Every structure is written in C-alpha cells, then in structure tokens.
Amino acid sequence: xxxxxxxxxxxxxxxxxxxxxxxxxxxxxxxxxxxxxxxxxxxxxxxxxxxxxxxxxxxxxxxxxxxxxxxxxxxxxxxxxxxxxxxxxxxxxxxxxxxxxxxxxxxxxxxxxxxxxxxxxxxx
Length: 124
What we know:
It is a single chain. The chain is α+β, with helices and mostly antiparallel strands. The protein has one domain (6-117): Glutaredoxin. The protein contains eight helices and four strands. The protein has helices spanning 15-26, 36-39, 43-53, 55-58, 64-68, 71-76, 80-89, 115-122; strands spanning 6-10, 31-35, 98-101, 109-111. The longest helix has 12 residues, at 15-26. The protein is globular. The termini are close together.
C-alpha cells in the first residue's frame, strides 16, 4: 500500500497547523508544506477548494482577522468570486490547515485538523 502524498497549506505559527504538522511527523508521514506568508495563496487552488469544501468551511468568519476587516470587505466575500479575492488579499481568513490528499484519498481536500479523519484518509 502506498502512502498518500499530502500538501499542507497554512501559516507556520498557527496552532492548528503546528498540531497537524507535528502529528504527521509523529505518524512518519511525509508531506509538503506551503506557507501562505512566504509563498502566497495559490489563487488557482482557492476555486478548487471552494468547490470541494464550500465557502462556509473554507472562509474563517469567526477569527480575529475577519472581525477586523471593514464591513465592505466582508460583504465582498458574499459569493465565491468575492471570497476568493478576499482570501487572496487576507490569507489569515482561510481556515487552516488546508490539506490536499493523493494516493488512496486522491483528490480529497480537508480543512482543519482531525486526527481520526486523517487516520482514515491515511488508511490507518
């Protein structure tokens, strides 16, 4: 059985991203990390993620960054096209980590960290 290739997208100092990366390392799982702060938000991926998980799951409207945005910026995120623009401009409003899975779970996208779900996707 082949181990899936996982790409983790996020911000390295985010507590949930840290937990996910630590967990993957403890499981002996290789992964790639895409740092939103250094590498930017891959705009082409945002559309795919929205199709996979939906705007309500991907856009973090409960976080500090969202609450600090002007009401007009928040209103722009009312549809997918606007949400993509807001997420490109303000990477911290993307719920993290975003994980893209290959292998057995090929094509799957998950948002947030759930060890039980990730174990299933890894085939453990």
